[in-house]
Design a protein that fits this description.
about 50% helix; two-stranded antiparallel sheet; Rossmann fold; 14 helices; 6-stranded parallel sheet; globular
C-alpha cells in the first residue's frame, strides 16, 4: 500500500470558534486579510461578529463579496487583482464551498499568475497559496479542509478542479453557529453533498485506512442528523452533528478524490443550472447501484452505516440496500431526484456525457465507465 493523507495544519471545531478569526490572522503573521464571501453571508450577524474579532486584534481587511453559487474564472481573476491591489497577505474565506473554492483559486493566481484555466488538475501550479483561513457556513462541501477547488470555466462552460497539497488551508474554523441560518432546502442539498463525499471516498479504487474510518463515521453522522437539521434549523445538536459529518467527509475525500457521482453531477450544475448538492442527490443512487459489482463489500458497509438491516440477506441483496437508502433519504428531505422534475430535456444527454467523460473525477469511480454507459446512467435519472 502507498498513500498520501492531507489535512490543514489546524482544525478548530465547536460553537463560537469563528470568533477566533482575529487571533488566527495574527498567528499567521497577517496584517491585512482579504475576506472572500458572498452578499448574503456578508449581511449575517455572525459575519459581523467575525469582523469584530478582526477589529479587536487591529487586523485590517478588505471584503470581496462577489462570489456566485457557481464561482467562475472571471470572479476569481478579478479577486486576485484586488488582493494584490489591496496589499493583503492572508486569505479568509467565509461561506459555503463557493466562497472557499474561490479563495483557494484566488490564492493560486496571486502566487502563480496566469489564468485559473491554466491549472485544471492536480499539482499544476508551483507556488503555495497565501495563508488561508476557512470558516464554512454550510455543512456539505468539506472545502474548509480539502486541497481542491471547483471553478466554472466560462469559455467552455464546464467545471474545473484545480488542486494539490499547496492549496490546503492553514486553519479551518468549523463553527456550527455559522450554519444556523441555512434554510431547509440548502441544508438538504449541502447535506447530500457531504454524503456523496463520504460514499465516494469509501469506494475509490485507492482507499486507505484513515479515509475509510472518516468516511464511515461521516455517513453515520449525516444519516443521524440531516433530517433533524432540515426539520428544525435551530436544533443545535443537529447542526453540530452535520458540521462534524461534513468535516469528516471532507477530510476523507481530500486525500482520495471523488468518482463518477461527481463527474456526472458536475455537468448537471454547469450545463443545467442544478445546485451542486441536488445534483449529487440525483446521481448517487444510479451510480452506487451501477458500482455494486466492483465494491460489493463496501456497499454493504455503507448500507449498515446508514442503519439498514442486512441480516439474513445475500451480499448482493445487502449491497443494494445502500443506493435505496440514499434515494429514500433524499426524497424524505425534499430533494427532487429525477431530472424530469428539474425541466431537463433528455436531448442534452449526449452533451452531458461528453463533458462527464472528460471530468477529472471520473478515474476515481470503482467501475470503469465509457461514454455509452455514462449516457445510460443519465437516462436512468429521468
Amino acid at each position: 500500500m502507498q498513500c498520501e493523507f492531507f489535512l490543514p495544519e489546524r482544525i478548530i471545531f465547536g460553537e463560537g470558534v469563528s470568533l477566533q478569526a482575529g487571533d488566527c490572522v495574527k498567528d499567521l503573521k497577517g496584517n491585512k486579510a482579504f475576506i472572500v464571501t458572498d452578499k448574503v453571508v456578508a449581511g449575517l450577524d455572525a459575519f459581523k461578529d467575525i469582523q469584530k474579532s478582526l477589529n479587536k486584534e487591529n487586523v485590517d481587511y478588505y471584503i470581496y463579496a462577489e462570489v456566485d453559487p457557481n464561482p467562475s474564472d472571471i470572479q476569481v481573476e478579478k479577486g486576485a487583482k484586488l488582493y494584490k491591489k489591496e496589499g493583503a497577505d492572508v486569505l479568509v474565506a467565509i461561506g459555503g464551498g463557493s466562497a472557499i473554492d474561490s479563495a483557494k483559486a484566488i490564492g493560486i493566481l496571486v502566487n502563480n499568475g496566469g489564468s485559473i484555466r491554466d491549472y485544471n488538475g492536480a499539482d499544476l501550479f508551483k507556488n503555495q497559496i497565501p495563508p488561508l483561513i476557512t470558516i464554512p457556513t454550510t455543512a456539505g462541501t468539506g472545502s474548509e479542509v480539502t486541497m481542491w477547488s471547483v471553478i466554472t470555466n466560462t469559455q467552455d462552460n464546464y467545471k474545473m478542479a484545480p488542486g494539490g497539497w499547496k492549496l490546503l488551508p492553514k486553519i479551518a474554523l468549523v463553527d456550527p453557529v455559522m450554519m444556523a441560518s441555512m434554510p431547509p432546502g440548502m441544508t438538504a442539498g449541502t447535506g447530500l453533498d457531504a454524503l456523496s463525499h463520504a460514499v465516494e471516498a469509501y469506494c475509490v479504487p485507492w482507499p486507505m485506512p484513515q479515509t475509510d474510518a472518516l468516511a464511515i463515521s461521516a455517513i453515520k453522522y449525516i444519516v443521524k442528523y440531516l433530517g433533524r437539521a432540515v426539520a428544525d434549523g435551530s436544533n443545535k445538536e443537529a447542526r453540530e452533528g452535520m458540521a462534524m459529518g461534513s468535516l469528516e467527509a471532507g477530510m476523507a475525500f481530500s486525500s482520495t478524490g471523488c468518482g463518477g457521482i461527481h463527474a456526472l453531477g458536475h455537468q448537471l450544475s454547469s450545463q443545467c443550472g442544478i445546485p451542486h448538492g441536488t445534483a449529487m442527490g440525483i446521481m448517487m443512487p444510479p451510480l452506487m447501484d451501477y458500482n455494486i459489482i466492483a465494491v460489493m463489500d463496501r456497499m454493504v458497509d455503507i448500507a449498515v452505516a446508514m442503519g439498514e438491516q442486512v441480516e439474513g440477506l445475500s451480499k448482493r441483496e445487502a449491497a443494494t440496500k445502500a443506493p435505496l437508502a440514499v434515494s429514500q433519504l433524499a426524497k424524505s428531505i425534499g430533494i427532487k431526484t429525477k431530472l424530469s422534475e428539474h425541466g431537463v430535456d433528455p436531448e442534452v444527454i449526449p452533451g452531458l456525457a461528453k463533458w462527464a467523460f472528460k471530468d477529472g473525477d471520473l478515474p476515481g469511480n470503482p467501475r470503469v465507465l465509457d461514454l455509452e454507459e455514462i449516457k445510460m446512467l443519465y437516462q436512468r435519472t429521468f
